[in-house]
Specification:
The complex is a heterodimer of chains A (581) and B (604). With 581 residues, chain A is an alpha/beta fold. Chain A has helices at residues 7-12, 14-51, 59-105, 112-115, 124-173, 175-222, 224-229, 233-286, 291-313, 315-332, 397-404, 427-431, 448-452, 461-470, 474-478, 497-511, 527-541, 553-558, 576-580, and strands at residues 357-364, 374-381, 386-390, 412-417, 420-421, 434-437, 446-447, 487-488, 515-519, 545-549, 561-566, 569-571. In chain A, α2 (14-51) packs parallel to α5 (124-173). Classes of the chains: A alpha/beta (581), B alpha/beta (604).
């Protein structure tokens, strides 16, 4: 079988390995029980049929049979339980590692750590989609993983163990029947592999077709308002019908061939059973075999083919089941953008209030991505100075800010504060010096007050209110149904972009850090909001070292210095007019 | 909310051509199951008879029959799979068309703010997809199991009435009690876990999105702990539900075992008493063992039935929704040459049912629907608006966000009807026109204009299928995309990707604008046509669009005062009323203070 057991899952997850072990154990039980059931059943039937035995005289065998039947049911339930619990354990483990990785590095899928990737094809909307998709995969993915652990994996183990036990037992009873079975099994497996290879590609194409069809329908439904605007919605109906019919015809064409593999397998199994039955019959007539042995062999024949056939049917569960885990591995395996600590004991963090920050020939490239995002960036941020950073989107502005905040470390050159390389400092201490007002701030589930006090959960109501007032957010907050106690976040009230940014500003006021990083805080806002935020920013910037990514020419003009980035390189500081043009 | 059963029946009802195929698929499936059962039962008989050592010729019939059953089984199964998949694909195509038709009149203007994320529509599509399982994996296996139970019971009854009762009882229990139990458990688990799953998903999402902020504020340990505890809550619930589900599996296995044992207990004394021929004992037991296989897919079928039911209910809730606007019984035709006018219009959103219907998932979170359409039913979004756009006139509509600009635009193309006042075209109330007729004359290019996953050319030609190539290039030039498209390797035949993802946000908007400019409509309503563009480019694009509009009337909505060059008139909307008719843009500064007041009113 192709990819019988997902190697990455086993390598990466101890829980998954445990699961394989449990499945092996239960599979061995099953193999023993299968043989025991056949032997007991054959004994009881032959005794009753040949010797007209009574229920009373067969009591021990019947009790044993009942025990075996119950044990088989229990083992099947055990497979299911261990599979489901295993899936839960594996998924919890992966989620834990995902959370640890994401939180430790500040490496959001759509956050600042990734912002510089915009140029490499990750667009804003897509990044948001991807983090949603990732969260969904990490939670809902457990269903698919259950199908894998409780469905495919047990079947795979059974397919490996039960046929062996069956063959071994039949060999003792009836070498001729064993020979027939032994001959058909490799044939069956050979066919499964041969046809499986071709069918795999064909099946994949079929799934692609179905996915494509579904995507097409989604595209049409999403665009329905546009279709109505241009009065094309009626015509689209005919197209939809025509596309559906065309794909159906095509899919049926592939299915006719794809199902042939199943047909061959079925034929092998059926004819194998029929041949065994005939052989046993002839041997019985000739008197070389007893009825009990004959019945045992006949009962065992379907048990031999069953798991082999079913493992093929469960194959899709393996692909779907591991897809969710893959989604998480993708993030886990991404190389870290933070360099390992360069010194064993971190140096004392310099105070950016009196020390300047120096970018020395700084370059940055994402691991595994060709071409640097930043190269040869060299400048100084003087204490208390407002520096504006301008440049076209994709130029590396957000990446530069991320390096300053140590959400990533330079791949060449160094950033220094007070002559110390940032990498020698304690990560958390350094980050504690910086407040960041992103363009698209995240509001966490909780009250408005809790959101403002994100950087200092112990801050009292008075400080929160002062910060809100300074950020020009007081009026907005008091207009909310429960004021500072209004619950925000997913499933609760949503604020507009401008309102979110005012809350983020209040956060920055409350933290009161010497360093401030602003990421186009007034972009894409209507004028009222933009002006209000610009005023608050001016107040916030006072007495702090500020790096401000700007589009807004008013802000750029106010700054002491303007840096322009283009294609990851620093262009000479342009005049304010040039920025506007 | 529609009744689940009605909804399910509505989906399960087959089209005429499909009924024949359904019967065929069921017949083939029953035949295949019967052949497999007959193969084993006959083998059991064959061996038992052989043990009596008759002349071998007497066994030949049984030997040939066994092989024939084997081949028949494989062939019928192949046919059944083809027939059932063909049926499923046909139904899927039909259901897509059907729900597309149902959605058509409901989505004149999209789902507004609440549906803007497109997630609701994605689920609508996923729901339609889910329904293809209904026949393939629910109905057909259930029918087969029931028919096999009856058939096997009957066959056993002919051999020994008591055995018939045992076989029927064992198979019927396996086909009903076990799947029902399993399905109910799955439903219970779904309900129980849904809130915990939602909470964990939301927390993961905010941790991923806000990871940088948490890192900077030193809060990552708190949030990691929060995730751990939510994870633990969900895991505890899920472990309990898994335990219950495995009990269902145990029950299924126990019922099957009890059936086998029960059959032996009634058949063994019967053999001794002579009521049952000894050679038939093995055949009976083997038949039961083989027949029990047909019940195996049923617990899964029960779980899928639940998925299908939820999907069907949601879809019918949407389909049963009344459209916001309907065509008049005897539509009139726009005469041409007149103006587009809005007189004393008052409007507020009255219901959110469509969005609500799309949002209801399991029926449990209907109450928790977030209040996205805040202000529904309370205050007027527009209150006494009068405005007119004459042919060839360029009017700009200015105002802060939330002032109702987009709503005003949507009323002009009749995505909604105002509660008071009227919208007229060429002096005719737009309610007297067919919607297609109105939109032939008045075109709205709104902020979520959709780019289809096809070529740039096809996306543009949507507006005017008979357009010639040079017309396409000309409109692209107007929105400053000419050079960009010309430099693309595939030019106009470049694919834009799903939801236009292969082009940037700014390019997407400008392509939508180009498409609007290409249309033959007499009035163009452009809602923020230059949003997300850098200021200099925005000014050039606006100028290009106005130039390309030619003889047509244009109403352009913007919140940027810098873009007003080239307009004949500027209107300012604030606080749901038209705050100012500023006249020529040049004299606008004179009333700017008034406009400023309007802005404050709109913002509060």
């Amino acid at each position: 079988m192709p990819a019988p057991v997902d190697r990455r899952l086993l390598r990466e997850s101890r829980a998954a390995r445990t699961q394989l072990l449990i499945a092996g154990l239960l599979g061995t039980f099953t193999a023993v029980l299968v043989v025991a059931q056949a032997v007991l059943l054959a004994y009881v039937i032959s005794a009753a049929a040949m010797r007209a035995a009574t229920v009373g005289s067969l009591r021990p065998e019947l009790i044993a049979l009942a025990a075996v039947l119950l044990a088989r049911a229990a083992v099947a339930a055990g497979f299911e339980l261990s599979g489901r619990w295993g899936a839960l354990r594996v998924m919890s483990g992966l989620r834990g590692r995902l959370a640890h990785r994401v939180l430790a590095e500040g490496l959001g899928v759509g956050g600042a750590g990734d912002a510089g990737r915009g140029g490499q094809g990750g667009r804003d909307g897509e990044a948001i989609d991807r983090s949603g998709e990732l969260a969904a995969a990490a939670v809902q993915g457990v269903d698919a993983l259950e199908a894998y652990f409780a469905g495919y994996l047990p079947q795979f183990v059974l397919a490996a163990l039960v046929p062996l036990a069956v063959l071994g037992w039949v060999l003792v009873l009836d070498p001729l029947a064993a020979a027939i079975l032994a001959f058909t099994v490799p044939l069956l497996i050979l066919f499964m592999i041969l046809i499986g290879r071709g069918a795999q590609a064909r099946t994949r194409r079929r799934w692609q077709t179905l996915a494509l069809l579904s995507a097409h329908f989604l595209d049409v439904v999403r665009g329905l308002p546009t279709l109505r605007t241009y009065r094309r919605d009626g015509i689209q109906e005919a197209t939809l019908a025509e596309v559906g019919e065309r794909y159906r015809a095509e899919t049926m064409g592939t299915l006719r061939i794809a199902f042939l593999s199943a047909l061959v397998l079925e034929l092998c199994a059926m004819i194998g059973t029929a041949l065994v039955a005939a052989t046993i019959g002839v041997q019985l007539v000739e008197g070389v075999l007893g009825l009990q042995a004959g019945l045992t062999v006949l009962l065992l024949a379907p048990e031999l083919y069953g798991p082999l056939r079913q493992v093929g049917q469960q194959f899709h569960a393996s692909a779907d089941g591991t897809a969710a885990a893959e989604r998480i591995f993708e993030v886990l395996e991404r190389p870290s953008v933070l360099a390992p600590a360069s010194v064993a004991v971190p140096a004392p963090t310099p105070d950016p209030r009196c020390e300047s920050i120096r970018f020395r020939d700084v370059g940055f490239a994402y691991p595994g991505v060709r071409g640097p995002v930043l190269a040869g960036v060299d400048f100084e941020l003087a204490p208390g100075e407002l520096t504006a950073l301008v440049g076209p989107s994709g130029a590396g502005k957000s990446t530069l800010a991320a390096l300053l905040m140590r959400l990533a470390d330079p791949t060449s050159g160094a950033i220094e504060c007070g002559g110390r390389n940032l990498r020698e400092l304690d990560l958390d201490h350094w980050r504690a010096q910086i407040a960041w007002v992103p363009q698209d701030p995240t509001l966490f589930a909780g009250t408005v007050a809790q959101n403002i006090a994100l950087g200092d959960p112990g801050a009292g109501g008075e400080r929160v209110e002062r910060a809100a007032r300074a950020a020009g957010a007081l009026e907005l907050i008091e207009g909310l149904p429960a004021g500072f106690d209004t619950v925000l976040g997913d499933g609760a009230r949503r604020l507009s972009a401008g309102q979110c940014r005012r809350i983020a500003l209040a956060r920055a006021f409350l933290r009161d850090t010497p360093l401030l990083v602003l990421d186009e805080p007034t972009a894409h806002l209507d004028e009222t909001s933009a002006v209000a935020i610009a005023h608050a920013l001016t107040r916030l910037a006072q007495g702090r070292t500020v790096l401000s990514i700007v589009h807004h020419r008013a802000l750029a003009a106010r700054s002491a210095r303007t840096l322009e980035l283009c294609d990851g390189r620093l262009v000479h500081a342009p005049a304010a007019e040039a920025v506007a043009a | 909310m529609s009744d689940s059963l009605t909804a399910l029946r509505g989906v399960a009802r087959t089209a005429p051509g499909e009924r024949r195929r359904l019967l065929l698929a069921v017949a083939l499936a029953v035949g295949a199951a019967a052949a497999a059962i007959a193969l084993l039962a006959t083998s059991g008989y064959l061996i038992s008879r052989a043990a009596q050592r008759p002349p071998i010729l007497l066994l030949m019939v049984a030997i040939v029959a066994v092989r024939a059953f084997g081949i028949t089984r494989a062939a019928l199964r192949y046919g059944e799979r083809l027939a059932s998949h063909d049926l499923a694909l046909r139904q899927l195509a039909r259901l897509r068309l059907r729900f597309y038709r149902a959605l058509r009149p409901l989505l004149p203007g999209g789902l507004g703010d609440a549906g803007g994320d497109g997630e609701l529509l994605a689920r609508f599509v996923a729901d339609v997809d889910a329904l293809q399982d209904l026949h393939l994996r629910v109905l057909i296996p259930t029918l087969v199991a029931v028919l096999v139970a009856v058939g096997a019971g009957l066959a056993a009854w002919l051999a020994l009435p008591a055995a018939g009762i045992v076989v029927l009882a064992a198979l019927a229990l396996a086909a009903t009690v076990v799947p029902a139990f399993s399905g109910a458990l799955a439903a219970h688990a779904g309900h129980r876990q849904a809130p915990a799953r939602a909470r964990l998903t939301a927390q993961l999402l905010e941790s991923v999105d806000g990871a940088a902020e948490l890192a900077l504020t030193g809060r990552r340990e708190d949030y990691a702990e929060r995730l751990r505890s939510s994870d633990a809550v969900l895991a505890r619930l899920a472990r309990g539900d898994a335990l219950a589900a495995s009990v269902a599996t145990l029950l299924g296995g126990a019922i099957a075992g009890a059936g086998t044992l029960g059959l032996l207990l009634v058949a063994i004394p019967a053999v001794r008493s002579g009521a049952l021929a000894g050679v038939l004992l093995a055949a009976l037991v083997f038949m039961l063992l083989a027949a029990q296989e047909t019940a195996q897919p049923l617990p899964l079928a029960a779980r899928r039935l639940r998925t299908c039911t939820i999907a069907a209910r949601r879809l019918f809730d949407v389909a049963d929704h009344a459209p916001a606007v309907v065509d008049p019984p005897a539509p009139r035709v726009a005469r041409g040459g007149g103006e587009l006018r809005m007189s004393d219009v008052r409007f507020r959103y009255e219901e959110r049912d469509l969005v609500g219907a799309l949002r209801v998932s399991d029926g449990i979170d209907a109450e928790d629907v977030p209040g996205d359409l805040d202000g529904v039913g309370d205050s007027w979004v527009l209150d006494g608006i009068d405005l007119a756009v004459a042919p060839g006139e360029r009017v700009a509509l200015l105002g802060p966000s939330g002032a109702g600009k987009s709503t005003l635009a949507e009323l002009l193309v009749r995505f909604h009807d105002p509660q008071h006042g009227r919208v007229t075209l060429d002096g005719l109330d737009v309610r007297e026109l067919a919607q297609d007729e109105l939109r032939r004359v008045v075109l709205l290019c709104d902020q979520d204009a959709h780019l289809f996953n096809t070529t740039i050319r096809a996306n543009l030609m949507l507006a005017r299928p008979e357009s010639r190539e040079d017309a396409l290039w000309e409109t692209l030039r107007a929105v400053e995309l000419h050079d960009w498209v010309a430099e693309l390797p595939d030019g106009l035949d470049t694919l834009v990707g799903q939801q236009g993802r292969l082009v940037s946000g700014g390019q997407r908007r400008r392509l939508a604008l180009a498409r609007a400019l290409l249309s033959p409509a007499r009035f163009l309503i452009l809602d923020e046509p230059t949003a997300h563009l850098d200021a200099p480019l925005a000014a050039r694009v606006m100028a290009g669009a106005l130039h390309a509009a030619g003889e047509r009337g244009v109403l352009a909505i913007t919140h940027d005062r810098e873009l007003l060059r080239g307009f004949d008139r500027v209107l300012a909307l604030g606080g749901s009323v038209l705050a100012a008719d500023c006249g020529k843009p040049e004299v606008m500064t004179a009333v700017i203070s008034r406009y400023g007041i309007a802005q404050e009113a709109g913002a509060s």
